[in-house]
Amino acid sequence: MCAAARMHPDGPVVDAALVRRLLSAQFPQWVGLPVTPVGSAGTDNAMFRLGPELAVRLPRVEWAAGDVRREHQWLPRLAPQLPLPVPAPLAVGRPAAGYPWQWSVLRWLDGVNPAVGVLAAPEGLARDLAGFVNALRTLNPAGAPAGHRSVPLASRDGATRAAIAQLTGAIDTAAATALWDKALRLPEYAGPPAWMHGDLTPGNLLLNGSGRLAAVIDFALMGVGDPTTDLMPAWNLLPAAARPAFRAALRADDAMWARGRAWALSIALVTIPYYRHTDPARTANARHVVREVLADRSV
User: Fold this and answer.
1) I need a labelling partner for 166 at 20 to 30 A (CA). Which of 79, 84, 122, 152 fits?
2) How far is CA 293 from CA 41, 80, 258, 267, in A?
3) How many CB atoms lie within 10 A of CB 217?
4) What is the mean pLDDT of the chain?
5) 4 phi and psi angles, rounded to 5 deg
6) What is the pTM of this model?
7) Of the candidates 282, 293, 64, the residue with the CA atom closest to the CA atom of residue 164
8) How confident is the model at residue 1 (pLDDT cuts 50, 70, 90)?
9) What value does the mean pLDDT take over residues 138-148?
10) Contact (Cβ atoms closer than 8 angstroms) between residue 68 and residue 102
């Protein structure tokens, strides 16, 4: 997906020329570095490589604009306590040159995004992911912001059912509805507030040459609360055979595992109709999630 593509109907077009204008006006020390769009940039943010060691990240849509400051405030505090590299923010840019929001310059992290179905070391990756999630959950939550996805499943009921209705003929809507109805009867999270990443998708993970987890990026949805959403790699990335290792390392009981599966389903269902014309890769992964969730009989 080209970084200049318009992901959201009311979002600005973000391209390398805009990045150069912003840098020229605000950070002239980096003007001479080449600006290269990153093909795997996310749906809420556009990413550009800036020379060999830096990255520029710009929100694509207003709801993501406030997350720039969140990352710059909290990632430097969390990074020393985590087992893997995470983004290191260096500077916050101002709105300018027709671009309406704050944006950021960060250290570049090497690695490749995992591809579903061709993982070199799926069980090792499952343990790596669980280790990172567990490390997050041990961090002190005092004073931290609430996670964007630290809400009860019931708060997603309307959007989930609307998406199911839009997908009639494209998925097994009866099975999706039955699973969702069952999930809404699950007990809510009753544990202490814990840190979460909130968006552990393949695009936010970087692997090394051995297929093991090398870094975790894009903490825009991070915060504290119910950390259930960090179980989503079980269905958006890991094959069924690797899920038991992931679940065991996280010590997820039946209720938490079922809530995580429901979160994965809900997000995937809403993703398909919203992004099917603008982000084929994300839509394909969402369809994969729906298939995996509906086929999963682990709870």
Assistant:
1) 152
2) 25, 35, 10, 12
3) 22
4) 93
5) -85, -10
6) 0.93
7) 293
8) very low
9) 96
10) yes
- For residue 141, give both structure tokens: 């939550």
Across 142-173, b (16+ Cβ under 10 Å) vs e yields eebbebbbbeebeebeeebbebbebbeeebeb
Write out pLDDT tens, residues 28-64. Answer: 999 999 999 997 546 788 999 999 999 999 998 887 7
Closest to 17 in 3D by CA, of 100, 106, 108, 99: 99
- Which pLDDT band, with edges at 50, 70 and 90, does 2 fall under? very low
Residue with tokens 């298939």: 291
Task: For the chain, give the secondary structure using H, E and C.
Answer: CCCCCCCCCCCCCCCHHHHHHHHHHHCHHHCCCCEEECCCCCCCEEEEEECCCEEEEEECCHHHHCHHHHHHHHHHHHHHHCCCCCCCEEEEECCECCECCCEEEEECCCCECCCCCCCCCHHHHHHHHHHHHHHHHHCCCCCCCECCCCCCHHHHHHHHHHHHHHCECCECHHHHHHHHHHHCCCCCCCCCCEEECCCCCHHHEEECCCCCEEEECCCCCCEEECHHHHHCHHHHCCCHHHHHHHHHHHCCCHHHHHHHHHHHHHHHHHHHHHHCCCCHHHHHHHHHHHHHHHHCCCC
- Enter the tokens of residue 43: 């749906």
**Per-residue pLDDT tens digits for 229-273:** 999 999 999 999 999 999 999 999 999 999 999 999 999 999 999
